[in-house]
Amino acid sequence: WLVDIVSPLKLAAVMSLAQIVMYLTIARIDTPAFAVVAIVAWGVSQGCFAPLTSAALPRLFGRRHLGEIAGAQMSALVIGSAIGPALFALAKSLTGRYEVALWISMLVPATGLALAGIASACIDVSDGLTGDLRKLLDASGVGSEIDLGLLPVSEALREQFPDEALSLALT
């Protein structure tokens, strides 16, 4: 129900802000007030994550790509889970403290929060550049121009399909 009353962009911004607060306060978790704030911020962050992944993503991208999106999310979580402990161990080894790792970790939600203030739309290109660009243009009521000379086309695609590489890159 939360996604019905709060826009996904605002929900993502609240989640990012809660994560930033959590990172700022977790370094002082030995103080009861900071411990409470860190726990509440973590709870708010996780409370936003569930509706974003279960309700907002299908609305934004459709159910057709939900498996791919869930796979990408899980991959990011697994990679982050592998990098995180190494980052914290390195910070502790080099500085004798964990705060540096907390500051570095805070960059992810801080970047998300900054982008939430800038971004006005998002779309994947799983239906091909021309197909998804058409959807974006129709929804925005604007036009576009593609400079085909600037379109990146891999050498492998050019070698395998020399006559159709550009057309394949667009679809």
Question: What does this molecule look like?
Answer:
The chain is an all-alpha fold. The chain is built from eight helices and no strands. It has helices at residues 2-5, 8-26, 32-61, 66-95, 99-118, 129-140, 155-160, 165-170. α2 (8-26) runs antiparallel to α3 and α4 packs antiparallel against α5.
Summarize the structure.
By secondary structure, this protein is mainly α. The chain has helices at 2-5, 8-26, 32-61, 66-95, 99-118, 129-140, 155-160, 165-170. The mean pLDDT is 82.
Percent helix, as a range, is over 70%
Number of strands: 0
Strand content: under 5%
Q: What gyration radius follows from the Cα positions, in whole Å?
A: 21 Å
* Backbone shape: globular
Mean pLDDT: 82
Total of helices: 8
Unreliable residue runs: none
Topology order in helix (H) and strand (E) letters: HHHHHHHH
Secondary structural class: mainly alpha
**Biggest sheet character:** none
Distance from N terminus to C terminus (CA atoms, Å) equals 36 Å
